[in-house]
Amino acid sequence: VCNRLDRNTSGIVAAGKSLQGLQILSEAFRQRTVGKYYHCMVSGELKEERRIDGYLLKDESCNKVRILSSSEEIGGAERIETWYRPLAVRNGYTLLEVRLLTGKTHQIRAHLASLGYPLLGDVKYGGARAEKSGRRFGLRYHLLHAARLTFPEDFRAETLAGREILAGEPARFAAIRRELFL
Q: What pTM does this model have?
């Protein structure tokens, strides 16, 4: 397996069929030449595309991370970059497409929550707002889906060069999206 997803995140996990394929794919993920796109629903209305950055500090004891601003660099913190664009905005909620420009533990969840836009159902990072949305929709987990991988035209593995891999949304994710945004 070449990439991983946080627990309760749905979507694409990539794996190599051969040792050589695994090595090529793993290197592409490490060098960030593969585009990783996610869909999520957040509390709050985000109306503009944006690239955000900061530092992520991991606390192993509670399996949680903290986001620090770009000016708060401290020892052990890792630089993160996240890009997002709204796909739909309605009644205090936003459906986002998010691209990981770096890929760290809980990055999307913690980064968006640190801006005041927690993922629906994400009690770990979203607090009371996420708990309220979780109750409203009967969620026991956050709504985050690894929806798409894109490969550059000059990718070493010819069968993936220029390709896009898509994963359909899970039924519960799609049902909530329809309820909120249609």
A: 0.92
The half-sphere exposure of 57 on its side-chain side, counting CA atoms within 13 A, is: 12
Q: Which residue has the tokens 């490490």?
A: 30
Which residue has 């998010």 as its token pair? 98
Element (H, E) at 96: strand 93-100
Tokens 């205090």 found at: 92
Residue 43 to residue 59: CA distance in whole angstroms: 25
Using one digit for the tens of pLDDT, what is the confidence trace for 101-116? Answer: 998 889 999 999 999 9
51 neighbors 130 (Cβ within 8 angstroms):
no
C-alpha–C-alpha distance, residues 108 and 125, integer Å: 10
* pLDDT 10s digits, 3-58: 889 889 999 999 999 999 999 999 999 999 999 999 999 999 999 999 999 999 98
Q: Give the C-alpha separation, 165 to 163, whole Å.
A: 7
Report the catalytic residues.
Answer: 6
Q: How far is CA 102 from CA 51, 81, 110, 129, in A?
A: 12, 6, 13, 27
Q: Tokens 């929806």 identify what position?
A: 147
